[in-house]
């Protein structure tokens, strides 16, 4: 059983451990990376823009002079399967990997449907397919370290119960629907991954976490990482009782990734759902449906051409 007592500002010693965070040049990914290096871990900060990555690493080093050298940058565009494969090959070749934080995401989708160079709908490709492929490509590395993967869910899946029968929204695209469907998918896949890993005897745990409602305007200004306008500060502060900073929003993500008592197949979020200390919660009903999850798994295998090497990972 996972303990309820957990101090998010005092993590277990992670010296010698290595993690990869997608979308770590901003928002929750940046603060998760920072919390991990502060606890002694090495982190691959990954992102799609070399300049934004360099700025974020510089900020992290500025804020953490003693820990910042454990932050390394790596280009990884989750919407591009070639980029995912290349980054995975680099990481697999460098040795130990204890955890993947599958965080990158388009949170403000385009109004009109767009597709990637691989031909997939942009939001589904970025939030879901790239992470499915990355986790599959790095599964044996994770298994070698008895590691863990954390998928990013969202409380929006409790309010909009979209069944992703058409996950790439060939028909009826709206930006919001694309976003919520992608979060139904990441949550369902995170829980399905846990079932498949257990069934195959792979020593890797899969968890799902969400940050509540975490906004830039409630987050410290950091050059190169977070510079909200005065208007968004004002608007976000009006919502203070139901929001928190991205630094605090990162707490459940990091707990899911490093709490030694987390068992796999669990769902983590803030205490009051929207804000607060990280606790175990309950994923929305639609994301717990194994038939929907199995259907999504097949869609991801077909779209990415990646079939998770479960037998190989079990033998590591
Ligand atoms: N904030 C919340 O309240 C909230 C609530 C529920 C769930 N979430 C989830 O939490 C995750 C992070 O959200 P956030 O609030 O931190 O958002 P954010 O501040 O907008 O950061 C998103 C991160 O994802 C990166 N990203 C976007 N497209 C990418 C791509 N193709 N390849 C690689 N990286 C890419 C962004 O990089 P660029 O700078 O290059 O765009 C950025 O680093 C998302 O999965 C989101 O769905 C957030």
TrEMBL record:
Q: What is its EC number?
A: 1.1.1.270
InterPro entries (alphabetical): Ergosterol_Biosynth_ERG27, NAD(P)-bd_dom_sf, SDR_fam
Enzyme class, UniProt record, top EC level? oxidoreductase
Q: Which PANTHER family match?
A: DEHYDROGENASE
Pathway the protein contributes to: Steroid biosynthesis; zymosterol biosynthesis; zymosterol from lanosterol: step 5/6
Q: Which organism is it from?
A: Microbacterium pygmaeum
Q: Name one Pfam family in it.
A: adh_short
Membrane-spanning residues: none
Q: Can you provide one Gene Ontology molecular function annotated for this UniProt record?
A: 3-beta-hydroxysteroid 3-dehydrogenase (NADP+) activity
Task: State the protein's name.
Answer: 3beta-hydroxysteroid 3-dehydrogenase
